[in-house]
Write a structure and sequence with these properties.
3 helices, 84% helix
Length: 126
């Protein structure tokens, strides 16, 4: 990478060429337009930075939702374990097909799918 140094005489020559091309009365208007363009570029850059930051924050929200889902799963398993033991004991380790347990599993899967849909929608909106 080479560095370009512009001295005073080069700036004077460039300024003289600009005055000759555009005229002295157009220079303030050109400078204003360049300033507005630079401001818009800076605003666009700030918006992109803000979007990136917000996206990283949405990942934190999705992570929190996943953590909550795993806690719910653990609670359901902790809740169903003693019931299963009691049913085994009641039927002398010969468990019939229990509709209640499969209904609970189906309901847990349904809730999980609903939470996954909500998490996806939250992530897309953020």
């Amino acid at each position: 990478m080479t560095l370009l140094f512009i001295g005073g005489s080069e700036i004077f020559v460039i300024g003289l060429i600009v005055v000759m091309l555009f005229g002295a009365d157009k220079i303030p208007e050109i400078a204003r337009t360049l300033g507005k363009g630079m401001r818009q570029l800076k605003d666009a850059t700030d918006d992109i930075k803000r979007e990136i930051k917000d996206t990283s924050n949405s990942d934190d929200i999705v992570g929190d939702i996943k953590k909550e889902i795993s806690e719910v799963k653990k609670n359901v398993n902790d809740f169903s374990r003693p019931i299963k033991k009691q049913v085994k004991k009641q039927f002398n380790d010969n468990i019939p097909d229990l509709d209640a347990i499969s209904d609970i599993k189906d309901e847990v899967e349904s809730v999980k799918k609903g939470v996954d849909k909500v998490a996806g929608a939250v992530k897309r909106k953020l």
